[in-house]
Structure formats: C-alpha cells, structure tokens
C-alpha cells in the first residue's frame, strides 16, 4: 500500500473513531490506538503518538464549547492538573521502557473499563453536605447553571481526587488516551461534583494532560507527521459530526452497540498482547 | 437610595460571576482559534506531503523513531520555515500542543487579575510541568 492510499484509509477510520468517541463520551483516543494497531498494523508507539494529538484536538474543541456555558470549575481543574501533568510525564517516561505487549494489555484493560462505564446505567449523583478541609482552603466551592438558576455546590475529597487524577495522568502518558473515564470517577465519586461539572471540567483538563504526554512523545520521536495528519483531521471531523448527532437525538441504542464494539476491541488488544504480536 | 442588606452578597456574587464569564469566553475563543489554526497548518502541510511522498510505500509498521529535526521544538520551526512538508505538519501539531499551554498562560494572568495568588502559583506549577515535557530544559 502506498502512502496516499494508507493516508486516505486512516483518515476514514479516524472519522469513524472520532464519531464513536464523541457519541460514547469516551473521546477519539480510546478507539484510535486499537484501530491503527489492529487494522493497519501500525507500530503501537506511532499509534499512541498520533492518538495523543487527536485527543488534544477534540478536547480543546469540545472545551471551547463547554467553558462558555459556565459548567466547568476552573479552580478544581487547575489544581488537579498538577496531578495529571506529573502523572502524564511519569507515564510517558515509563512507557519508553515498558515492553510493547504490556502496554497493549494495559490498554485492553482500560478499554474494558471504559466500555463498562459507557454501558452501565447512570449512577446516582452524589452531593457533598459540607465543604471538605482542603476544598475550603483552596476555595473550590462554586455554582453551576440549572433549569432554575445557578445552584451552589460543595466540594470534598480533594486528596483522594488528587491521587486518582495522578493515575489518570499516568494512564494517559502510557496509552495516549485522555483518561476521561478515570477523571470523571475522581470528580463525581471522590469529590462529589455534580455530573455536568465533572464531565466538562474533565474535558477541560484532558487537553492539558495530553499536551504534557505529547511533549514527551514528540521529543522522543514517537509522533510521525505523516500518520498524525490524517488521524488528527479525521478525528476532529468525526467528533464534530458526533456532536451534531448528539444535539439532535438521544442515542441510548447506539451507545449500547458501541460499548460492545469497544469491549470487543479491548479483548482483541489483550489477546494480541498475550500472544506477543506487539513485541517486535 | 438604600440597598437592602440581603442584596449585598448577591450583588457581589454576580460581579464575580460576570468576571468569571468573561474569562471563560476568552478561554473558549482561545481554544477554538488554536484548534482551527493548527488544523489548517496540518492540512496545508498534508497536501504538500501527499504531493511529494504520496506514491512512496508506507512504513508505519516498523518503528524507527523520528529524526531530531521532527522532534525538537526549534528544529521543527526551522524545518517548517524552509517549507519541508513533514516539518509543516509537525508545526501544526506543535501549534495544537501549544493551545492548552496558551490556555494555562492566560489563566495565570486571569488569576493574577483577581489577586488570587494561591491559584497563580498553582497555575505556574502546571505551566512549568508543561514546558518541562516539551523539552524547555534542554532546548
């Protein structure tokens, strides 16, 4: 296959990945790495580099829309970005020394978890009765727009949230994904932020986390321009299309189907990792 | 005119919200502009790239690692200025990576404007980490 054919196929595949990622809320990165490695036999390091680029593009694009609506909590996001960027740099540096099959297996496991998160029925929103000690110190309490005006909320569990965010950063650095599912876990389960606030703040943070990983990958020579080009442009287009579809219709059926697609990709990554197809 | 006591904290709250709103709108514009600009540069570079290398065989299955002129900030800038197709795409990618960094830099100023020094420090730490990852310590 010559470069122009492969570029075109990767571009089309990336449109599909961006569309899927946007509909499930998992982000394009989760599908890009399995797509590139399993379908196009791209080396997993190049795949992760290209995926990171697409993650920055989609999260910045989406954050631009969300941030204006006043949901995201910039203080919470900024503070937790210390944890995610340190994590991302650690992850990206560790990834260089990890055997490729181990990366593939970790990827599969995270993918399975993501599929489960997007498949299961929404959990109940937790509300903090009062402000936690560190949240008070860092003035994290805020309010968010609801149908009946701005509603105040309290924040708690900052140390636990910070710890989980570090792990989210490490995973992002090793796997080239946004780790949105783990970030949301830290914010709505540990810190009791309202759903709307945690998902938009998470999206807001993903760009910074991925930029930290991407910096390390770029310096290591893991980002190939010829591959990153169709991936970035395709995922951007696909997720834009996904946003339009989401705005027009609720898609629980599609979400369920896609969760199974992602679970299948996860199993294939793990099987390929175990059988050693990734190590050469 | 006398203002009822109960209205005072509300008024203050609304002012802060208006300030936050302005910051959020600027951040939104910044992010959108960055992504559009980066995508445009990548697209232009991509067209040149395919025009020159389109018919040569693809090789992403074998990992070689990118040469120094495609992996270090200053070298990428130099390559893009000389209109090398791969260098131009890499410049677009660099612009994309710079978008969240620019957002963080802007947030430093926004917090400084609010005289929120705790968050100025927090944001500067994030900025330092980002610059470290981009290789600012060994440019």
What brief labels describe this structure?
heterodimer; A: 280 residues; mainly alpha; two-stranded antiparallel ribbon; 11 helices; B: 139 residues; elongated
Question: Can you give a write-up of this model?
Answer:
- The complex is a heterodimer of chains A (280) and B (139).
- Chain A is mainly α.
- Chain A has one domain.
- Helix content of chain A is 74%, strand content 4%.
- Chain A has eleven helices and two strands, in the order H-H-H-H-H-H-E-E-H-H-H-H-H.
- Chain A has helices spanning 3-24, 29-39, 44-68, 74-95, 100-119, 133-137, 158-175, 180-190, 195-220, 225-248, 252-274; strands at residues 142-146, 149-153.
- In chain A, strands 1-2 form a two-stranded antiparallel ribbon.
- By secondary structure, chain B is mainly α.
- Chains A and B meet through helix 1, helix 3, helix 4, helix 9 and helix 10 of A and helix 1, helix 3 and helix 4 of B.
SSE layout and pairings?
The complex is a heterodimer of chains A (280) and B (139).
Chain A lengths: L2 H22 L4 H11 L4 H25 L5 H22 L4 H20 L13 H5 L4 E5 L2 E5 L4 H18 L4 H11 L4 H26 L4 H24 L3 H23 L6
Antiparallel strand pairs in A: 1-2
Helix pairs in contact in A: 1-2, 1-10, 2-3, 2-11, 3-9, 3-10, 4-7, 4-9, 5-11, 7-8, 7-9, 8-9
Chain B lengths: L6 H47 L19 H9 L3 H29 L3 H17 L6
- Rg of Cα set of chain A: 18 Å
Topology, number of strands of chain A:
2
What is Rg of chain B? Answer: 22 Å
Alpha carbon gap, first and last residue of chain A? 21 Å
Helices and strands of chain A, in N-to-C order?
Answer: HHHHHHEEHHHHH
Instruction: Show the largest interface.
Output: A-B, 66 and 64 residues
Shape assignment of chain B: elongated
* DSSP strand content of chain A: under 5%
Strand content of chain B: under 5%
What structural category arises from helix and sheet content of chain A? Answer: mainly alpha
Average pLDDT reading of chain A: 87
Give the H and E element order of chain B.
HHHH
Beta strand count of chain B: 0
